[in-house]
Amino acid sequence: MEISFYLASAIAVIATMMTITRYNLVHALLYLVVSFLAISIVFYLLGAPFIAALEIIIYAGAIVVLMIFVIMMLNLKQGSIDDERAWLKGPIMVGPSILCAILLVELVYIVWPASGAGIGINAVNAKGVGLSLYGPYVIGVELSGILLMAGIVGAYHLGRQKKTVTHRFLEKQEE
Amino acid sequence: MNGIPFEYGLTLAAVLFTLGLISVLVRRNIIFMLISVEIMLNAAGLAFIVAGSRWNQPDGQVMFIFILTMAAAEVSVGLALILQIYHQLKTLDSDAANKMKG
Q1: Of B11, B42, B49, the CB nearest to A59
Q2: If chain A, 175 residues long, is cut into consecutive pieces of 10 residues, what is the mean pLDDT of each piece?
Q3: A115 — contact with chain B (CB < 8 Å)?
Q4: What is the C-alpha to C-alpha distance for residues A140 and A134, in angstroms, rounded to an integer?
Q5: Residue in B73, B88, B69 with CA at minimum distance from that of residue B30
Q6: Which residues in chain A are closer than 8 Å to B83, comparing Cβ atoms?
Q7: Looking at CA atoms only, how far is residue A174 from chain B in angstroms?
Q8: What pLDDT is stored for residue B1 in this prediction?
Q9: What is the model's pTM?
């Protein structure tokens, strides 16, 4: 069980590194799906089977499919990959990578002497999550509903294409 | 059988978060920046799950569900913004969008 945790972690990290270094958007998204599947296995091993299912359904399913739809709507050409190759040159990556690596070392240094306690021995199933979600956290559920409503309205408002009406003498933008 | 050590899970979350942060800083394509923000949110959720699993409480999983909701709302608004930017500027370069009324 522990060996599968280490394997899934390694796959998640490698797939994420491949995601952030690809030039082609669709290849990056496919590696992102692999990374989400590996993290889902980690969730399962940590005793959260409900969250593992949600990770696959919502992250690897809905969000990635939404991004693929947008890439299809953008209708990118071969030139975009060449642009990407020109933007992502080696020297650009050095500075941010070094700074972030220092932050990572600090974070790991803070985390490491924690307790040595084992995790993932007892699973917390969907029933416990549901009882907690609709018990003490019910205000959070309502706020999430408001957030999703705002998201829907915002996406509709921003995604609307404004038509230009061309008359003989005057051109106006339709609100 | 002692289970997976607590530090390893938090370290995995930290590594994934750092990879996402590097990608946000390095990339110039707006869609790649949005993908990196997704990676970072997912890593934060992983840290919540690890902590919740450490004390056998469902609170970490509840927080992950809230993060998931937030990520879904964020990606829908972000993709609508990307569509508008691409419509107006004909490029995905984030540096091209540095002027207002662009």
Answers
A1: B42
A2: 88 93 89 94 89 91 90 80 77 85 87 69 81 90 94 89 68 59
A3: yes
A4: 9
A5: B88
A6: 70, 73-74, 158-159
A7: 16
A8: 46
A9: 0.87
Taking only the tens place, the pLDDT of each residue in B54-72 is: 888 889 999 999 999 999 9
CB–CB contact A29 B35 (8 Å): yes
Element (H or E) spanning A173, and its range? strand A171-173
In the three-class reduction of DSSP (H, G, I as helix; E, B as strand; rest coil), residue A117 is classed as: coil
- Measured between beta carbons, which residues in chain A are less than 8 angstroms from residue B8? 5-6, 9
* Cα-based angle A29, A44, A114 (whole degrees, multiple of 5): 100
Question: How does DSSP classify residue A87?
Answer: H
ipTM, 2 decimals? 0.91
Q: Are B21 and A99 in contact (CB under 8 A)?
A: no
> In angstroms, what is the C-alpha Rg of chain B?
17
> 10 Å Cβ neighbour count for A13?
16
Contact state of B92 with A88 under an 8 Å Cβ cutoff? no
* Closest Cβ opposite residue B14 in set A104, A140, A158: A104
Instruction: Look at B81 and A80 and tell me if their CB atoms are within 8 Å.
Output: no
User: Hey, which residues does B5 pair with through a beta bridge?
Assistant: A118
**What residues contact residue B53 under an 8 Å CB cut-off, 6+ apart?**
A46, A47, A48, A119, A120, A124, B9, B60
Rounded to 5 degrees, what are φ and ψ at A170? -125, 140
